[in-house]
Amino acid sequence: MKKINLFPITNVDELVYPDELGSRNLTSPAAEFFTDFRLDDPEVIDDSVSALQARQMMRATHVRTKLVVDDAGHFIGVVGVDDLFDQSILTRAANQGQSRNEVTVADLMTPKRKMTALHLSDVNKCSVGDIIELLTANSRKHCLVLDEDTHQICGVFSASDIGQRLHQSIAIQGPTGLGQALSAVS
């Protein structure tokens, strides 16, 4: 095992902030602004979890969106906490002749066949300003990123995350839930 030393920090007065490491602006590479699933695990949920349980878990962990997977772990859709309102659950239960406890994530998710995504190769060629323009023009608060070589969803852009990193508000009028936003026609 390699020996590692600890040092006193009594003479240290300052903290480093990301902006000091290089300023981020609208011309910064877009790849610096998306949640990259190759580095951070995606938030996933099984399609068979009850909608009520999913909503409770998402609220407890302050997670607004989950990627939905089937029993084999294959990506099949997206569900947002906004998709799991009581009214949505009750409507689905009534339409299917179920109790509200029987409504699952699969019943309320947006299936992948209704979604679109950006190619990773395009993300690597554009600026974050280009991404903001795309999101704004298409009234989308989120956008998935697809690695076209591996045929895998490798990340997601979030307008609110981009705004936080740029220290500015990015106002996009459009669907509130990620599933709704991702299925918006582009």
Automatic annotation (TrEMBL):
<keyword id="KW-0129">CBS domain</keyword>
<dbReference type="InterPro" id="IPR000644">
    <property type="entry name" value="CBS_dom"/>
</dbReference>
<dbReference type="Pfam" id="PF00571">
    <property type="entry name" value="CBS"/>
</dbReference>
<dbReference type="InterPro" id="IPR046342">
    <property type="entry name" value="CBS_dom_sf"/>
</dbReference>
<feature type="domain" description="CBS">
    <location>
        <begin position="109"/>
        <end position="172"/>
    </location>
</feature>
<protein>
    <recommendedName>
        <fullName>CBS domain-containing protein</fullName>
    </recommendedName>
</protein>
